[in-house]
Amino acid sequence: KWVHEDDPCYEFYEDGASLGSHVLMTVVSGLQKHSVVLGNTTKALPLDSAEQNLSNIVNMCHSLYQSNQSTKNKTFYEHLRFLNEWDGLRLASAQMIASSGVANNHLAGGDMLRMANNVVRFTKLLEEKGDKDVQLLTLSMDDFISDTAR
User: Fold this and answer.
1) What tens digit of pLDDT does each residue of 135-146 get?
2) CA 108, 12, 102 angle in degrees (round to 5)?
3) Which three-class secondary structure string do you get for the chain?
4) pTM score over 0.85
5) pLDDT digits over 84-123, tens only?
6) Measured over all CA atoms, what is the biggest interatomic distance in the chain, rounded to whole angstroms?
7) Crossing angle of helices 111-129 and 19-31, rounded to 10°
8) How far apart are the first and last CA of the chain?
9) How far apart, in whole angstroms, are the C-alpha atoms of residue 92 and residue 145?
């Protein structure tokens, strides 16, 4: 149902803060422990660069979703059905990275950014508490899904 009601480019919560403002600092701080190799140089990902990348994703989303007269009243679902494969993938990916998921009370959307946030937070927890004090359950999709034909 949410795919018929959600704006995949809407990135804000009721308090006016964006999904990025909630989790981007944590993700970037976790990534800064691991340097990124760019050409012959090695450097950490700065927060302002990550914010700009996220902004670019949101802007790209807006360029695809309800961006002209013929798509002004189309739903996210209709966009996914009628955009070409490449643009549909770009739109769906943007929703999975940056959207706040307002149609689902912020329970859907931004999955990729939230996932990276969770990995960083769980890694920090394990570093602080140690393996003996923390039990972390991970499930493989192969173990979780018993019958994909349904």
Assistant:
1) 777 777 776 676
2) 35
3) CHHHHCCCCCCECCCCCEHHHHHHHHHHHHHCCCCEEECCEEECCCHHHHHHHHHHHHHHHHHHCCCCHHHCCCCHHHHHHHCCHHHHHHHHHHHHHHCCCHHHCCCCCCHHHHHHHHHHHHHHHHHHHCCCCCCCCCCCHHHHCCCCCC
4) no
5) 999 999 999 999 888 877 666 766 667 888 888 888 888 8
6) 58
7) 50
8) 19
9) 22
Token pair for residue 150? 């349904």
Amino acid at 57: I
Kindly list the distances between the CA atom of residue 55 and the CA atoms of 20, 43, 61, 79, 91, in Å, as whole numbers in the listed order.
9, 21, 10, 21, 14
Both tokens of 72, joined, read: 């002004």
